[in-house]
Design a protein that fits this description.
The chain has about 650 residues and is an alpha+beta fold. The chain is about 15% helix and about 25% strand.
Length: about 650
Amino acid sequence: MEAEIVLKIYAHAHPLKLIDLQVKYEDEEDEEGDDDPITKKEGFGGARCWRCGEEIHMYHRYYYTCSSSCHDFSLHKFCVEIMSRYGKLEELFDKYYQNHLSIEEVGKNTIYHPCHPHLLMCLIPKPILCECSACGKKHKGIFYQCTFCGDFTIHSECAFLPEKLFIQERTDGAFHHTHPLNISYSFPFIDQQAKHNPKCRVCGRDFLDFKKADLWIYKCDKCMYYAHLDCATSRREPFMSIFLSPGAGRTKKNYEDVDHPGLLHLPFLDETYSLPKHYLFFQQSSIDHHHHKVDEYLKHMSHEHPLVLIDVDQTQSKSNTQTSSSLLLLKCHDPMKKTQLLCNGCLKPIMSTMPFYKCPQQSCNDFALHEWCTRLPQEIENHPDHPRHNLYLICSNILGFFFDVFNCAICNLPCNGFAYCCFKCGYYVDVTCGFIPKEITHKSHPNHLLSILQLKGDKYDIQCHMCLMGFYKGELSFHCNMCNIYIHPECALLLSETIRHKYDKHPMNLSYLPIENHKSEYFCEICEEDLNPHQSFYHCKDCAQSVHTACASSILQCETETYSLSCWRNSIHFFLNIKFGGIHKIHSHPHSLSFAQGTVLDGQCSICGHRLQYEMIFKCHECKFAIHFNCCKHLRQI
């Protein structure tokens, strides 16, 4: 035993006991089979080594002390090892230190660190340029090196970083977190995958970019908050360089409101808001301040029957009980009651709190239009994605498209609502993308102006700031020039700030980062599958429930299993712009077919034999006949 040898050298009367000052970390000495029993100790008050005279610190980790009443007799474990192996200290210095370093100097330049099982020594007491095994960066300064491993070297600044820190104190409030961050001496790939491959909350870069998984980080596992060492401690030069790449810190407003009249601030408050509504109301308020006159009956070019105005405010001011009774029987869009009514123009929900027109004929599949969708402009000039030609409004019988279903050239979603098109180029967009603004702001990246940008080349190396998915050649994106952040138009325009869910009495809010103090693992309440909290998602803090943004619009169909896999880029429900329920007839079947989204109960297509679930289909309610939308389109062409 090392302690017995020391006792022989110094003729100490009492046994020595080995103390471990870093009780929170795994005891590496036990693994190495040390014969001396180890005592864990917290609240260390400090002592001096009897041999070298230097103070014993926490970073020395182990030391020997008298087990009896000799409280002033303590020794660094390092000093004990030297004496036990070489006897007289002068013999060690003669062999290894030609410059005759004193034992005091050796003690100062030696530490036990919880990140590594072996003794670390400062072999070169002068500043050198070397790569640090802790942060992975090259530093110039004093380094500690493992004398056994040879390739483990840490910079002195990294070696003595605090175990806990508040990031707001280290970054002058530019970044903030409720809890102190704990230092971690590794972030293995398997742990990163389990946490959905998080990004550094300061610089926005992946930890997977690390060449090694044993580099240190600061983290709060409870809140999934992770940061690189130099990001969390502001050790970059200069500090403001942390803003050169996308991060989640405090940003300063980089535009003046007076220079951007009518600037659109996203996301929209809830599902009742839309881009056409915003455009028409802003245009109306800027042109005239008189109340817009609304006709009680309307003959619109999109429908064969006259439409009746439904307006709660006007109806309640009248004493016409027959009209009021008709209004009560009307099924407006209400997720809490699992009823759905979509506008045939913009495909957005129609609520009882807004004026709209509806066809009174029951055979017309609840044909309805927002009041403002009846006033859409017939022509759009200088569209950001198609500035060469004007775009014209088409309300029905879209040329060349079966059942009026076309794919929007901007959001790439199928749509059977109104369209703006260029006949010369065969260019079609839905009415929301028809009004796409040239600049916006968004809460996912607050205070900075986002401008529309058409991507040149294949941009597979960039990700959407909200859904973390990539871009394709020629796509439009909202872009922050200052931070080089990109957002898909559909993520910015189609995801509202709040949604309602029948199984949660509170509104669910759009979140862009993991929730602080979240009590459990993340999963979607709709599809019951895993949820990545680093992507945008809906969450209720009161009930600790979360929903995929792609599943949010499927709340009304959640009992018929129509949600899974029906998403675009994991963020938008693929059939968000489709209004199901129309009737179609084919010669090969005697009954009328209903336009619907396929479920597991619909089985296989009666024509091609492939699965119908998650697809647009036509199905018969009188028998089990059901076919794919594309199979039906092919029959029509034969």
